Amino acid sequence: MTEALAMLYAGLGPALEPANLLLCLAGVALGTLVGVLPGLGPVATIALLLPVTFALPPAGALIMLAGIYYGAQYGSSTTAILLRVPGEASGIVTAQEGHLLARAGRAGPALGIAALASLLGGLVAAVVLALLLAPLARFAIAFGPAETAALMLLGVAAAVALSPAPLLAAWALAALGALLGLVGTDVAGGRPRFTFGIPELADGIGFIPLAMGLFGVAELIRALESGGAARRTLPVGSPWPARREVAAATAPALRGSLIGSAIGLLPGASTLLAALAAQAAERGLFRRRGRWGQGEMAGVAAPEAANNAAAQTSFAPLLALGLPANATMAVLAGAMFLQGIAPGPAVVAERPDLVGAIILSMLVGNAMLVALNLPFVGLWAAVLRLPLRLLAAIVIVLSCGGLWASSGSVFDLWLLLGFALLGWALARARLDPTPLLIGFTLAAPFEEALRRALVLARGDWSVFLAEPASAALLAAAATVTALAAWMRCRPG
């Protein structure tokens, strides 16, 4: 508790700086916008904004990018409830009961409950994050290179296991990402590696063109080729729920907050998994009363609280362990590297001001989101009538311009195009590119930890089994992979 308070106190000044407050507001507003618009999303948006972060201080950049992530969870509920077309994957769960409420003429109260439940989820998650970061960082600092390498392998295994792609395909994508991450100059030998005689690859493949292309531009291309026309929405009405509706939704929202906070701590977990778990818990309670499936506020409150809580506690594996829990965290890890900050336990120990500012900005950002969502819910509903194809075309042009302005390299633009086509092809094949991005992000630190472990062990590979913690982590990775294979192969 003392460590948490000290960290928050150190981050109080940066979090309340006017510039950072404006960046927080910009982040949550943009996150709400991309959550409202089906076809976009926080991963694509954060990837496209990576060039902008060069001009920002580390705290401001991370506060803004974090705001986009959890802001998108808020925005997704608008499309989920009004259209039954979620802007984010986790909105699928909210859509089930939320759209029934909208069709019954209660769209406004449903949107109000979604905003308030998300606020509760965000507050609970911020407290959990503050309390657990320091203990997790101490745990990770005690790791040697063998344990660190095994932990990273477990993180990749978890991401692969939770990927919707076939298991072998997901592992192949992770391996491809790792190979791409190893392109460049071998630090140990000083020789070019996988550069194929291309001088521009001597410094490796840039994270910005890869992330922007694979997630950002690829998603926009899909928006251009799919139905990007405006949609008709159900009438909203007043977003202020009645007291009895707030009272009835409080317990489900609290349960969803706790479930989401716990799931967000797991490497490889997602906001969709948190929302599904919260919905399953509430459905078990309400089914006995015969009310589920008829438009129940608990079916909005629980998943909305859970997905926002999971979005925020997913920062714990990244900041304390250096493990990106999902694609969004992998892009944020890249943003930290671009700022000269390596995610991991050293950040918590050496930069409590930065970590504390991020956590406090979540408290401020969630309050901003309620202020943006409740009074202006009609405005966000009107955004749905904008033609997405036009927006996507404009954003693609601006993104290419932003990449050119940040790097000044034509080669990076070609890389952007190549990865955009790869991301589009993977989407057409229904393969999730998240394992590729996580493999790319962890390739360099994994190689460093692996080499250090082998140097200390004089080339003896058995060091990974001789160390109890390393052996346990490798066993966990094997177990996760075996369970994923069993789940995919079992009938039904």
From TrEMBL:
Keyword Membrane tagged: yes
Domain DUF112 positions: 21-437
Membrane-spanning segments: 20-40, 47-70, 110-132, 139-162, 168-189, 201-221, 258-281, 318-342, 354-374, 386-405, 469-487
Coiled coil feature spans: none
Keywords per UniProt: Membrane, Transmembrane, Transmembrane helix
Pfam families for the chain: TctA
Keyword Cell inner membrane: no
PANTHER family named in the record: TRICARBOXYLIC TRANSPORT PROTEIN
Protein name: Tripartite tricarboxylate transporter permease
